[in-house]
Write a structure and sequence with these properties.
By secondary structure, the protein is α/β, with parallel strands linked by helices. It is built from 8 helices and 5 strands, in the order αβααβαβαβαβαα. A 5-stranded parallel sheet has the order 1-2-3-4-5. Helix 4 links the parallel strand 2 and strand 3. The longest helix is centred in the middle third of the chain and has 16 residues.
């Protein structure tokens, strides 16, 4: 089962469950929602964090979203690409941020490439972002090398209060 596999992986790597976050694509979750719901609840009992990736691109169902024990929504990059100029992208990303926070979820924007995008999303209350503005994708070895070479003050971004 997913929970058993997670427990084994956590034990093998001596990792606290809350430090493991599994990302599930929206389309994958909603194909077999009842089965996935049971599995997600078993993972939450282990203490694993859960994120819905590519939110807004697939089979969104708010009825299922409220039943799933997720911690984070990841706004798909297709709704970030046009920011700050595309009004539809602005409205959709703002709505996802608002909805996520009203459900006490963390919201992350994917594909942030410009300071203008980051600033606009932050103004709208987006909790975090990822994208080329920060870094291109890295191998695990390259990530470790960069973390070890970065002074602690630079490596730790300022914390923001969470909406919980």
């Amino acid at each position: 089962t997913w929970a058993t596999t997670s427990r084994v992986a956590l034990a093998c790597h001596d990792l606290e469950p809350s430090r493991l976050e599994l990302e599930l694509t929206e389309s994958g979750i909603f194909r077999q929602p009842e089965t996935v719901e049971r599995r997600l609840h078993s993972l939450k009992k282990v203490g694993v964090r859960l994120a819905i990736d590519d939110f807004g691109t697939g089979y969104s169902s708010l009825a299922y979203l409220k039943r799933f024990p997720v911690d984070k929504l990841k706004i798909d990059r297709s709704f970030v690409d046009g920011l700050p100029d595309d009004e539809a992208d602005l409205q959709i990303s703002s709505a996802v941020i608002s909805m996520g926070h009203s459900l006490e979820l963390e919201v992350l924007a994917e594909g942030v490439e410009t300071e203008a995008q980051r600033r606009l999303l932050a103004e709208r209350g987006c909790d975090s972002f990822q994208g080329y503005l920060v870094s291109a994708p890295l191998s695990a070895d390259e990530f470790r090398r960069r973390i070890l070479e970065t002074p602690a003050a630079e490596a730790t971004p300022p914390s923001r209060p969470r909406r919980r």
